[in-house]
Amino acid sequence: MNTIILKTASKYLLPLLLLFSVFILLRGHYLPGGGFVGGLVAAIAFVLHAFANGLPETQRLMRIHPGFLMPVGLAIAFLSGIFPMLFDLPFMTGMWKKDPIPVIGSLGSALFFDIGVYLVVIGSSLTILFTISETK
């Protein structure tokens, strides 16, 4: 699409949607949301930008291939599951820091698992959508 309204709106909506996706990610282990939903919102933000400005511009903006996010996210999620095993706890046992951190809340292994899921969802969604968009 080549409308000036969509191009202008996407310039302002991209950072707002990305910030909203991080908000959903951080609130996910207390209320509905989390890594999956936050990752989808972030992917939608980049898809909107690609519709308005073209795929090459969005790929230039991202600076890395979205497929790179998948193994990084899987590694973070896997390591968050293995970490409790260092303390003789079962795999994927939730571990929490005693004192909450302002804005984030209680820091725990569930947050790191959600961050891994967030990156995997962004990477897989954008890889699929960008691949479909590139084929003509």
- Continuous helix count: 5
Would you tell me the structural class of the helices and strands? mainly alpha
* Strand segment count: 0
Give the low-confidence spans. none
- The separation of the N and C termini measures 16 Å
| SSE arrangement, N to C | HHHHH
Whole-number tally of structural domains: 1
- Overall geometry comes to elongated
The helix fraction, in percent, is: 55-70%
Gyration radius over CA: 17 Å
Beta strand %: under 5%
Mean pLDDT: 90
Largest sheet: none
Summarize the structure in words.
- The protein is an all-alpha fold.
- The chain has one domain (4-134).
- 67% of the residues lie in helices and 0% in strands.
- The chain has 5 helices and no strands.
- The chain has helices spanning 4-27, 35-53, 55-62, 69-82, 109-134.
- α1 (4-27) packs antiparallel against α2 (35-53).
- It is elongated, with a radius of gyration of 17 Å.
- It starts with a helix and ends with a helix.
Notable features of this structure?
136 residues, mainly alpha, 5 helices, 67% helix
Q: Helices and strands in order, then pairings?
A:
Blueprint: H1 4-27, H2 35-53, H3 55-62, H4 69-82, H5 109-134
Helix pairs in contact: 1-2, 2-3, 2-5, 4-5
What's a quick, concise take on this entry?
With 136 residues, this protein is mostly helical.
